[in-house]
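Recall the central idea of this unit: under ordinary conditions, the amino acid sequence of a chain determines the structure it adopts. In this exercise we apply that idea directly, starting from the sequence alone.
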Amino acid sequence: MPDWLSTSIFWITLVVMLVGTLGLIVPIFPGLAVIWLAALGFGVITGFTTLGWVLFALLTILLVIGSLIDNILMGSRAHKEGAAWSTVVLGLLAGVLGTIIFPPFGGIIAAPLVVLVIETIRQRNFKKALLSLRGLAVGMGSAYIVRLFIGMAMIGLWLVWAINR
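Accordingly, the structure predicted from this sequence is:
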């Protein structure tokens, strides 16, 4: 492969990964999946070496962990503050639907609103419902930080792969 093409593929992949990293700010945006897909595209275009396969497997594991940890942190924090698991699930569904119907910020508004309304009705106490909402918000913040670190680790692993191919 000519040097100019190899360099172009490297920079295009890196830019797509950085877009994925910026997308991690929006809780429902699949930023980690964008980073993973960029790495997959890089491997398909440039070829997978043994090191490439090993690092791509690690990228895949990080993608799965990052995708699960997001929901676990948000849901567990809300539950810890008093929200019922059914409320947490409805909040997550509202977040997904809100993002689909009113992208990109509909989910950020819908999930907390649903948790607040359902918990106010369920507990008949607005202050307790606010605690559940606070738990969800803390979980969202924690999830963002974890996803950001996972995304940076994924890019770092890809850089090791790209530089050593």
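Residues 3-163 form one domain.
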